[in-house]
Specification:
Keywords: Transcription, Transcription regulation. InterPro entries: BAT_GAF/HTH-assoc, HTH_bacterioopsin. Pfam families: BAT, HTH_10. The structure is a single chain. The chain is α+β, with helices and mostly antiparallel strands and about 210 residues long. It has two domains: about 5-150, no CATH class; about 155-210. About 35% of the residues lie in helices and about 30% in strands. It has helices at about 15-20, 50-60, 90-95, 120-130, 145-150, 155-165, 180-185, 190-210, and strands spanning about 5-10, 25-35, 40-50, 65-70, 75-80, 100-105, 110-115, 135-145. The chain has an eight-stranded antiparallel beta sheet with strand order 4-5-3-2-6-7-1-8.
Length: about 210
């Protein structure tokens, strides 16, 4: 039975560490692709601190070849390649143990991630490798997918946002609450609420109609 590892981590040796240090930047990883033994291609949505992110990546030695893929005025999708200046990379630690990245976002100085593993043993091996790498880790939870994940593909944050929205009448007609009120309830920004709801909708629709 598959297990999901929910945790937060940080290290000054990670990619983008210089760009993110001391800045009020929020971003979410859309996709990670391996371009070689040590080089990755990152696709990240930046929702807060876009200007600071733009300035940072120009002088950050850990990333190169930045491309703006999409810009919808509320958030911007970037594609960046990592360089050999990155001293610590988390991706191969879970990818080589058959892990599947469900979510990863950066907020308040920490990366927050959820990884699915086929077995508890593979999850334990990843956690041990992560600690040995020197990365600072705060574990949020380990759980079996079928008992904790009522909707396929939803991350913990998306599920919490959708649940709060439903319980507080966000989907009622007329609407009984606002994204600002939900943001206060969840203790996150209004932009983060909008993103989690939008991506949660997309995952639910894909899980329901994706094979049709």
């Amino acid at each position: 039975m598959s297990c999901i590892f929910s945790y937060s981590f940080r290290s000054p040796e990670l990619a983008l560490a210089e760009t993110l240090a001391g800045e009020d930047i929020e971003l979410e990883v859309e996709y990670i692709g391996a371009q070689g033994p040590e080089e990755l291609r990152l696709f990240v949505w930046v929702s807060e601190g876009v200007s600071a992110f733009d300035d940072g990546i120009e002088r950050d030695p850990t990333v190169t070849d930045p491309v703006v893929v999409s810009d919808d005025e509320t958030e911007r999708l970037y594609s960046l390649a990592t360089t050999d200046a990155v001293e610590t990379t988390v991706y191969p630690l879970w990818a080589t143990r058959d892990g599947e990245g469900l979510s990863a976002h950066y907020e308040d100085g920490w990366w927050h991630s959820e990884i699915r593993f086929p077995t508890r043993e593979q999850l334990a091996a990843y956690r041990e490798a992560l600690l040995e790498s020197g990365v600072q880790v705060e574990m949020r939870g380990i759980y079996r997918e079928e008992s904790h994940e009522p909707a396929p593909g939803l991350t913990t944050e998306q599920r919490e946002a959708l649940t709060a929205a439903y319980r507080n009448g966000y989907f009622s007609v007329p609407r009984e609450t606002t994204t600002a009120a939900l943001a206060e309830t969840l203790d996150i920004s209004g932009q983060a609420v909008s993103e989690r709801l939008r991506r949660g909708y997309a995952r639910l629709v894909d899980a329901t109609f994706g094979d049709e």
